[in-house]
């Protein structure tokens, strides 16, 4: 079978001296299967997509699409491929039908062919009911389906999907995979790029990219299979599990370890002996081998988790008065007639990691903003350390640290200047400021970068810096907004290592995320859906609740989908 | 796909892009603001806000020695509609007010005013003006001279002693007999507004596609550069003409500017200029990838040169040579000339034909540059 895409020594750099976005890539992409482009943000996935779509010129080497050189035959290639860019490439001020018509005209799908194609695609994407709705008013999942429909108008032989699952809830994500598989059956070749490593397992073949280099090409199962017998789950550590994880990671035999709800997932080095209760020094813990995942293989390939221990970044906190340090009491926020958050209540205990989980637009950001004191609730109250954020705002805010999704650092200031600025913003001055800045520099190992502009730092260091800035004033409560979405697995592990250490010292954490991996680090999660809190519990309890014959071992994502569907059914029954 | 089928689809693709662009314009309030509100706002600002005419200028009149003649001249001065006169016996009374800018000038009738007048000598009238505001200073001097002349004439008629052989100068102002600067300013403002809007419209719509990431999906379809550009030009051209209609209606009915040339020529001439302005916007959009940068560049490239070098606010002839040379490439300059001619003078081919030819040449060059620089790729 001929390859749809073949590259030879392909390289792409955007500036003469910059690190190339893609380096010496030789590969073939076949028809009739899904090829995954897998890697963290900045790995070069989008660059490779655009090179295939003949939207970028290669700097070196060549890339052929269906035997045509992308340098010279761009127009002909455009006629044969379907391409859905990030954010789906839709005109938000045009309706569903107008978007489809535009692309049908541009791609020359006319007459009877158009009628038939529209009918087929609208049925396929389940958008027939929404043809008059503006694309901007669609949900993330529906936008994604419309973007897919626009890309598929001319029955392409090659379909390029650039991060189609970003910002899309798990249910729509599952639907999309179903749609893509049905295309595969028709012989279409699909290239799917993603930062979610779990999606790699759905692909027949993956190209794993990291910093522009190919780490692995081939069947993801082969990659995962290498890890067989090296992955274990540790159960029963209870409240000690974070400390146990930190301790386990100090062993040279252990190359990776993450929290998975109540359990700890440990990957051992090649040829190392399986861990025993004795070797990890925790008698009450049961250890069971578990099937490896793609992510285990990915981390192993990158040489395992970086071993660093967090120095004294925050002081040990006493248990306080035993009251919950974070309380949401019937938080409600209405925008006009729309209720974004509807009587959301929860309490977070000291030293707990609490997750707000939900699809985009569900109301978790609204809830989060109210908890940070950034958005006044229409009803209800938000308390930090017993202080009402809207009655004693400055006192309450002084007790919380906040790390925003995009880090909110000043890119043109150096690391030291950023630290100084944030220390000042939190009202630290003189000796206290010097002490605070010195403490975080040491704790997060920022010394080598002090004079570099923070805008040019690698993602992992930006994240460290942002976290340093957020905890400079030693808040007892820390709020994190999607802290590690799109971040590579190693950086993510390092980040959670910091967080776990802080929790060990009694800091209380609240995280928002639509990322199931992040939710696994939480002690408890609140599931937010359509403005309501539809479940609050530990990840295991949520998983356990949806256990059935069809899904004997539900993942958190399965639990999420099942609970949302349950909620929808209950709403329908009530209506 | 064959070249023939690519070609046959061209009109369909252009039409699809025009339809899309039009729908976006209709639904996007910001295009409406740029096309209708902005021109009206700017025109009212220029039309009412800027004027080179002085009415009721505050001046001080010093009569060092009151005589019937000086009193007569004082009355004549107060009777013009240009001056708001205060009287005093010494210039000292006005020095502070002049320094403070409370009055714009001091007119001094010297002690021997009547005697000199009697002798037929040059009369002793001194005009002191505030040189820090040369425009008003010039006006005051000019108006005093005018008032002096008309007073002399009156006196002459009253005495019936006008000497034979004396030259009688009578000024006639053609094209703008009331000498209202507004008549020149409004057509000038229109050209500036059209320059700004034209460049802004296209620069914004293209950079918006970059900002929202839609350009990527668009470029991955079989559209060509020319199709893309025409798809952007046509709807915005129509929008620009709407903006022009707003301006012309305001000029005719709000500012009472006459339209002495033909409406058809005005529309045709505007169409040529619009193609220049829109091409500048497209050229900007080949480098500007965000709407913010695009609007800043439109300001810098279209608005400011139009303001300084179109010749409607600042006299190009009195600029230093390098700036005069620069003004040659400012399209607004030719449009101002043409518009002022069409509005105030009529269809004068000797002005309009060269201006039109230059603008056609400019738009051709700009469009060719744009077509060459518009990328079919993202890098």
UniProtKB/TrEMBL annotation, chain A:
It holds the Pfam family ABC_tran. SMART domains: AAA. The keyword ATP-binding applies. The keyword Chloroplast does not apply. Keywords: ATP-binding, Nucleotide-binding. It comes from Rhodopseudomonas rhenobacensis. Involved in beta-(1-->2)glucan export. Transmembrane domains (TMD) form a pore in the inner membrane and the ATP-binding domain (NBD) is responsible for energy generation. Residues 5-236, 326-555 form the ABC transporter domain. This is ABC-2 type transport system ATP-binding protein. PROSITE patterns: ABC_TRANSPORTER_1 (PS00211), ABC_TRANSPORTER_2 (PS50893). InterPro entries: AAA+_ATPase, ABC_transporter-like_ATP-bd, ABC_transporter-like_CS, P-loop_NTPase. GO terms for molecular function: ATP binding; ATP hydrolysis activity. Belongs to the ABC transporter superfamily. PANTHER family: ABC TRANSPORTER G FAMILY MEMBER 20 ISOFORM X1, ATP-BINDING CASSETTE, SUB-FAMILY H, MEMBER 1.
Automatic annotation (TrEMBL), chain B:
The keyword Cell membrane applies. The keyword Membrane applies. InterPro entries: ABC-2_transporter_component (IPR051449), ABC2_TM (IPR013525), ABC2_TM_bact-type (IPR047817). One of its GO terms (molecular function) is ABC-type transporter activity. The chain crosses the membrane at residues 32-52, 184-207, 237-257, 263-285, 297-321, 341-369. It is found in: Cell membrane. Residues 137-377 form the ABC transmembrane type-2 domain. Pfam families: ABC2_membrane_3 (PF12698). GO terms for cellular component: plasma membrane. Keywords: Cell membrane, Membrane, Transmembrane, Transmembrane helix, Transport. It is a multi-pass membrane protein. PANTHER family: MEMBRANE COMPONENT OF ABC TRANSPORTER YHHJ-RELATED (PTHR30294), MULTIDRUG ABC TRANSPORTER PERMEASE YBHS-RELATED (PTHR30294:SF29). Belongs to the ABC-2 integral membrane protein family. This is ABC-2 type transport system permease protein.
